[in-house]
Write a structure and sequence with these properties.
mainly alpha, elongated
């Protein structure tokens, strides 16, 4: 016996992945904006900025994947 139907499971995964990717994207975008005040000569700041950009790319890939899965893009 299934706990949920195929359609419910599809929407559950869509919401889970979409929310995670969206929150990840926003969180890293906010951190990137905050890091603009930091000292550019510090290599740790550069590493953090790079990490935030990579996080934003991962979040964007997740959102695009969800939208493509549903035929929006």
């Amino acid at each position: 016996m299934n706990v949920m139907s195929d359609t419910q499971f599809k929407w559950f995964l869509t919401l889970a992945v979409g929310l995670l990717a969206g929150v990840w994207l926003v969180y890293d975008a906010v951190n990137l904006a905050r890091s603009q005040r930091a000292d550019d000569r510090d290599p740790v700041v550069g590493d953090r900025r790079f990490g935030y950009v990579i996080g934003m790319v991962i979040g964007a890939i997740g959102l695009v994947g969800v939208l493509r899965f549903h035929g929006v893009l």
